[in-house]
Each structure stands twice: as structure tokens, then as C-alpha cells.
Amino acid sequence: MSRLLSRTRLAAGTALAGALLSVLLPAGGTAAxxxxxxxxxxxxxxxxxxxxxxxEGEQDDTVGSGGTPSVTASVSADPVPxxxxxxxxxxxxxxxxxxxxxxxxxxxxxxxxxxEQANRSADRDGDCGATGIYGPDLLVTDRVxxxxxxxxxxxWVPQAITGVxxxxxxxxxxxxxxxxxxxxxxxxxxxxxxxxxxxxxxCLEASxxxxxxxxxxxxTFFNQATKKYRHVLLVWxxxxxxxxxxxxxxxxxxxxxxxxxxxxxxxxxxxxxxxMVWYGNYLYVAxxxxxxxxxxxxxxxxxxxxxDAATDDxxxxxxxxxxxxxxxxxxxxxxxxxxxxxxxxxxxxxLTFTTARNTGDTSKNQCYTTGRPKASYVSLDRTGTDHLVLxxxxxxxxxxxxxxxxxxxxxxxxxxxxxxxxxxxxxxxLAYGLPTGGSFGGEPLWHKIQGAxxxxxxxxxxxxxxxxxxxxxxxxxxxxxxTVRLAGTExxxxxxxxxxxxxxxxxxxxxxxxxxxxxxxxxxxxCGPCEREVYxxxxxxxxxxxxx
Length: 548
Fold this sequence. Notes:
Helix content is 12%, strand content 32%. It is mainly beta. The protein is globular, with a radius of gyration of 23 Å. It starts with a helix and ends with a helix.
């Protein structure tokens, strides 16, 4: 869309918003542009979103490291059969009306235009420099590396990956050769808004770093044709204390701390976003403790339509937006903010686990054979009927009784739940316990799984290894004593440092050979050889290497 068209659409949206406000405001009410808004950090009006509050700086390989797992005796020698019923998801409260109000207040941007106007440059292949983070077992066919501030950030950590092959069969979104890849990052600082000596609003002080705020999750869309990318902040819509529509970053729950954030008082807990699937117009993001948060790519809001960050842009609701202030988010004192990001994408639905939590401890990445699973990672299987794969990260060194479970959902069931009424359920049609047996580094091989993928009947898992090379594992369903279980292939292939989520570019649209994509999470500050890259392997080679 041209700038002229954007301005035309903006003017039309402003007129429409004015008409809507006359309906939405109570009798005798004043226009939103003349009303006073309280700053968002006060949050009197932010409703409880219903999410369980479980800090997700989990998926920590170093928990209990350096010794024999403390629970070896309590973990079955054989894989425990999965229970699909434990994986049931149900649609939560309806966010449609809130997102509709945001849509009337703010201009929108399509993903195609966003990709064409991406503002940050990535390097490819040899331009990424040394290949020290990769092991000798697999030949890397694609390498993508970030601009320096993203490559070295200690605030934002990449975890999840998906792309246009998940989105649609023909792999054609926007321009025919864009082949976008999407990466999810979480805010690892997790300080809440009380990360100062005293007082709850000190993140707004001039002396405070913008990293003081818990910014939740952002998604990066990478255009392979132009080698450009753009970040989009994911947000939660709500009505503030002055009855105005607003949004905030993704958190589990809101709280108040008298002074600094401590282990017993976290003003905000972010989510880990360890996996992500882009399917059609929807983006499914893993929320470890709760299930899936769902976003609609048709509803990306643009806080800087004219592209000039130095000038505040008028919005359809008669206010303005500011993309230079990195310390504020949502509507504050009649100005829209997005922590400095131009684009925000509001959550449109929630799919939450219906099974009760296991009564065991989960504070050190413990997992259990029954009860509510964790949504640590997700991927898409397009080799038959489209299915979403969901699984758990578990660290047996911290305790627990299970190395993890995986389950699969027909995408038709998930889509129906997203578009249905609150309470609509999506059932898993299959579940497995992870394989057992094998060892690695003096501990069980089958745990610390950061990503899983099912392809042509076989399963592939990315196993992390703290600040060293991880492993790519393979498993096959087999019938044992009348029960189908996952049996691990004896061979393990050395992967990158800090390996994460998995995504398959199937190539049926562009004619390329299937490629298995992943990413490394560690910034160079984490260890000497660490690098933060997105990469792929030739899937045919992966299959052949496991068979050899």
C-alpha cells in the first residue's frame, strides 16, 4: 500500500471511529480525545486474563547439572504410553469485541506490505562469518544472521520458528519469492515494572533503561527475497480504568510490588514462547503453563503509517501514536505507544488446557506422566492431514517422573475452536511419552527437548546441551505389548549450540528440496563460540544420516 493510500485509509478510519465513538460513549460522555487516561502501569482497569502464573525462564539445561539425575529410579525404563485426553484444549474468553475496538482506533497493515517495507537487514550464508556453532554431522544449507543489536541482545532471546510452508501449501504469501520465515523472541529480563529501588512506576523515569519493562513476546518476519526483516510486538487487548480500549505486552498475571521485584513478588511474568505455528491467517504461540495464544495476521496495527518516526501520527480515534518512546505501551494520556515498535498484533483467542495440573513441583522443569502437559514447543506436520504437534521441555536433573510427552491435534479442530464460542474444545488425537534409553554427557539422552517435528511418520527432536552443541534425535512409533510407543533411533546427530524449535519448509510450492529449519538462541556473551543464527539442513540428508 502506498503512503497516499495509507493516509486515505487513515482518514476514512477516523471518520468511522468518530461515528463508533458516538455509539460507544455513555450519554453525556466526552470524546476520547479530550478525556484523561491514567498511565498504563497503574492497571486498575486491566482484567485478570485467567492465565496461570508460571515463570517461563524455564527450559533451563543447567538445573541440577553436574551429577546423576535425582529421579532416575522414579522414571520408567520404558516409554510411558501417552494419554491424548490430557492434551485437550478449550477456547477461553472471547476477545473479538476488544480487538474490534482496537481496529477502529488504530490503522492496520497487511503482512505483505510489512514484508515489502521491512526495515532491518540480515546477512546470509558466508556473510554470517565463522561456522563454529555447528557440529560436523550435518551440512548447513541456509544461514541467516541478525543485525548486531538483535544478535547480541540480552533482553530478547529467540526461541520459536515457523514460516510460509506452515502457513499455506503453495508457500506463496505476497510476492512469490518472499518465502517468509517467522521467529519468536521472549523478553528474558522479566523484571516487571518495579525493577527500581522503590515505587511501581519507576520504569518511566529518565534514568531507567527501557529494558526495565517486561515486553513479553515479539515476532520477526524475515523476507528471504530481500534479506530484510521487521519485528512485531504481540499484545493483549483490554479496557483501561477510564473505559478506553488499550493493550499491554503478553504476561501471565499482573501484580503489585512494594519495592523491587523479588522471587515472591513479580509485577509481571512474561511467557517463554518456546514454539510457534503460522497456519493460514492465524499464528499459534505456545504458552508453557496454559496452552496456546492465538493471533490473526490480518489484524496487525501500525503505529507509524507515514514511516517517519520523528513525527507522531494521527490515529483513526482522533489521538496520536508515538514510536520513539520505548518505555510505554498501549494508550497513555491520549497517546498510543508500543515500546518503540511500529507494529503490534493483538491476541484474538486463547486455547487453554482443561486437564488439572499435576500436584508435583514444576519449579525446576520437572514433568510428569499424567495431568496437564506443558506447551513448551509446537510445529506443523503437513505430510498427511494437517496436524499441530505440541510437546514438553523437561529436565530430569531437577526431578519429576517423565522426560516429556508429545501430542498432536488436527488443525481443523484447532481452527474450529479458535473461531467457535468460548468453551469450544479441540482434542488431541494422539499422544506419546518420549523414548527412554541412551545417555549423553553422563545423563539420560531423552530429555531437555526444545523442539519436535513429525515428518512422513518419523519424529525428530532437538535436544539442547546448555552452552555446547545439542543433538538432533529421531524416533519411530512401534507397537510394544499391544501399545504404540515411540522408540528412539540409537544414532544422535550433533547440532548447533543452543538449538531450539523446528520448522519444515516442505518445498512443494517452490520446487526446492525439503529443508529442516531451526535456530540458535545464545548471544556471543553467553559463551566464546556462541552465535545467534537461523539455519536449515537438507531434510533428505537428515533422513539418510540417521539411516547410515
